[in-house]
Amino acid sequence: MFAYVVRRILATIPVMAVVALFVFSLLYIAPGDPAAVIAGDQATPEDVERIRASLGLDRPYLVRFGAWVFDIVRGDLGVSIFTNLPVSTMIMQRVEPTFSLMVVTLILAVSIAVPLGVVAAWKVGTAIDKAVMGFAVLGFSVPVFVVGYLLAWTFALELDWLPVQGYTPLSEGLWPWLENLILPAIALGSVYIALIARITRATMLEVLQQDYIRTARAKGAGQRSILFVHALKNAAVPIVTVIGIGIALLIGGAVVTESVFAIPGLGRLTVDAILRRDYPVIQGVVLLFSFVYVLVNLMIDLLYTLFDPRIRY
Amino acid sequence: MSSASILNPADVPPDSVKAAEPTRDIMPPVKTRTGLWGFVWRNPSIAVGGGIVLLMIFIAVFAPLLWTVDPTALAPARRTREPSAEYWFGTDMLGRDVYSRVIYGARVSLIVGFAVAFFSSVIGLAIGLVSGFVRWADGIIMRIMDGLMSIPSILLAIALMALTRGSVGNVILAITVAEVPRVSRLVRGVVLSLREQPYVDAAVAAGTRTPVIIWRHILPNTIAPMTVQATYVCASAMIVESILSFIGAGTPPIIPSWGNIMAEGRALWQVKPYIVFFPALFLSITVLAVNLLGDGLRDALDPRMAKRI
User: Fold this and answer.
1) At what angle do helices B153-163 and A266-275 cross, to 10 degrees?
2) Measured between alpha carbons, how far is A61 from A78 in angstroms, rounded to an integer?
3) What is the spatial distance between Cα B149 and Cα B179, in angstroms, rounded to a whole number?
4) Do B154 and A255 touch (CB under 8 A)?
5) Which member of A4, A64, B49, B69 has the greatest number of CB atoms within 10 A?
6) How do the residues of chain B divide into helix, strand and coil, expressed in percent and rounded to 5?
7) What is the per-residue pLDDT across A202-225, written as a single tens digit (0 to 9) for each?
């Protein structure tokens, strides 16, 4: 068990190394001259040279990569071309809204999607099942910003139940904070809900055919206890895996959702950085999100071994 | 001990053997639907999804003939008109006809969707084959793919777009890079399971060379899962393209794409929601159609996969 934990943690090192190497190398493999693109159309040759130097493109590749990795390990993500502030400072200022949005979305999505999937598997082939599966296809197909605008239009503009846009920090109270996050969380969660509901249904369908479910029925266990205790517990591993993998969808969707709902988080920072071609900021955000993603999935893998006594390595 | 046995034909008296009665159909004749209607009846997802995709292709190809005007023509005098008989979907803040822009926008979405599906299939197939057949390369390739897959695909595309000039070609490139790892993993999985098949063992034992095995036995079996995967890649690419354009990292604003039209309508969405609504509707319906087509193809081509999801 201990050996497995150590091995699993060590296995993330090459993955993170590839992420870092790739994100770093983008500057070199992107077609055209990145320094000229970042400088913009009105730039003088001196501007381009200045940006080339600030990106380190005038130094040899490996020297530059070594220095860059050394800086990252110390928490230094470089300096923004546009504001001249350290990228790590800019990111820290924007972490709270994005983190809040993702946590609320995660809780909301899991608490909607898992019961939906369980019910669909239980009532397989009926209208309920078909409705859930139809909803899942819709969730995969309607882009997150379209869902966002639809929700904002209906529940904020027409019905006036919730605020249209903006963000209130958690320090100003739970409800003002939550109130601003409900619509963005539903919009961001739509794909995620579809994904989790689908995998829950598929896994539950398999588990419900096992002998121990028949045993549970035979000993007179109630329908609810069979579904949520006997079956769901045994279906947990694939579902939790997909919840972990799906976080990539949340991260990508957060960029757009924050634009639609004017939430001043990392997504907005990214969008602003694109418009200013502030590459160090984009690089920092991509690195941070990728590492968070890898770490979350590492944690999920490790949690299996704690919660599922059948998994032994 | 030699007793007569019916197992020995010589022991059976000749007149005891009667010709069997011709078997009669036990089941009443089943009404089989043939032709186009039968296909639609058996594969409603393929029919509906494919039908809408064909319609969108038609719209994209014949955009100039579908009562459109120049989608980039500015007319400041008639800005932000509501939808009417003259301007079916209204006009945007620069007075451009939203209907014409949405119809022409189908071109960008479809080109990006199909191109990404094609290129990521071809590249993913090549990488997956190498990974499945070359043992020493497999570990390295899969570590690289794991790394690439841990970068959320939209962020990967954003990072690439921030370094290149906005053009349809670069958008296709950026989304393809993000999609290739998934296709490679799929192909590798298929190749590894096929290599365990007895007919592949038999081919190896008969001395068939590896390229011939790949061509005869491996490639034909990757077509079904790859086709299904390609439709999903196409749907996802269309969504990513619209997101990139929407946040200003996609096709240049001068090209009308659904994401661009929405990006321009964004500032006015609370007062003039139709500018965002129509491209959003077209995008959603198209992606839905491609996803339906994918689900239908999966059910028809790959019943084992259909059972799992």
Assistant:
1) 20
2) 17
3) 9
4) yes
5) B49
6) 70, 0, 30
7) 888 888 888 888 888 888 877 888
